[in-house]
Amino acid sequence: MHIRCTKKLLVELKVEPESVTEDNPLFSWHANLITVNRRKAVVLVNDDNRYAVVLYGLKAKDFKRFNEIALQGIRETFQAEGISDKVIDQYLLHTGEVCITKTKNRTSVARMNKACDNVYFFDELWDVDSIFQPDMGIKISRMLVGDGKNSYFLPHEEMYKDLNLFAGQSTFEAKAAVLKVTLRFENRQVWRRLVVPVNKTFNQLHQIIQTAFGWQDYHLHDFFVYGKADNTGNHITEGHNEKIQKPIINLVCTEEAFDYPGQVNMKLEKDVKLSEYIPAYEKLTYNYDFGDDWNHDIEVESIIENYESNYSACLEGEGNTPPEDVGGEYGYEEFLKILADPDHPEYEHMVNWGRMQRYEDFAIDSINTGLKRL
């Protein structure tokens, strides 16, 4: 593998660049050193497809083993994408030794610099506890880039194609769960049936549900995982007695949630994969907006052993999602009453307000387009 470094990065590495012949661009990366939040970061951009891998908070000792860290960064980012371990191992085995060399040309440097600029737009994605930043790499690899010929492409999709062609097998191979997610209403049916790879984190499941229901992610949320229980309240994971069910874990979205402990143990959702609880547990809840209190019941309907994709899909669904900040179920019923009466004095206002809140009919094609972009 060739890592083509800028002068700034070469100085930090304290190495002399090697001379190299023309290489396979799939195994060649341009790399630059930048400073973010007063920490040193390195952005690597693949020469073939402009896929990005990001490292953060590197110190002097880390630069001494940069080759090893760069390869591990590629591995962890690919794993976060859901790329199969077989394909990752095959790619990294084929790379051979890492060769540090100079940048190739101005075009490649310009493309790399664009990826470097993009990391500054997503400050909330930095994981300050790790050098490896798969969420950041995945995010900027999903941004359209131009090829200089008035056409555009998505780097992550091109990387998938390249790896598929290189490995001669499916890029993805993961277990997935079919989930029925139902918004808890007394008088209405609002639900989505989703296929979700279980290597996703609960934070990613939050984003999937937001997209599937058309929520705007304005508010806090959490998950509860429920275990089957016997009549004494003791949890069991086998059997069919479900008379009593109590949550076994509360997965929260912010550190601040730990300031308000309840009777259920808490964990941060971002580091917890679905596979830790699915398929062992079949019932979960997702609570969004603690003011309007939108509760979603999640039922694990089945498991797909070999799901050949890394993104979720909506199989079917029913019903419109209420607008944000409508005032809970009661407020939503009042909203619908006004929309049903063009003579109501607030009709025009409510129509415009609903449009601003992106209130719209259930549209499965639009939902699946959004899910594929996550």
TrEMBL record:
SUPFAM superfamilies from the UniProt entry: MM3350-like
Please state every residue range assigned to the domain named DUF6933.
2-158
Question: Which residues does the UniProt record annotate as the domain Plasmid pRiA4b Orf3-like?
Answer: 176-362
Cite the InterPro entries for this sequence.
Answer: DUF6933 (IPR053864), MM3350-like_sf (IPR024047), Plasmid_pRiA4b_Orf3-like (IPR012912)
Q: Which Pfam families match?
A: DUF6933, PRiA4_ORF3
Give the PANTHER family listed for this entry. LEXA REPRESSOR-RELATED, TNPR PROTEIN
The protein, known as: TnpR protein
Instruction: Tell me the organism.
Output: Sporosarcina psychrophila (Bacillus psychrophilus)
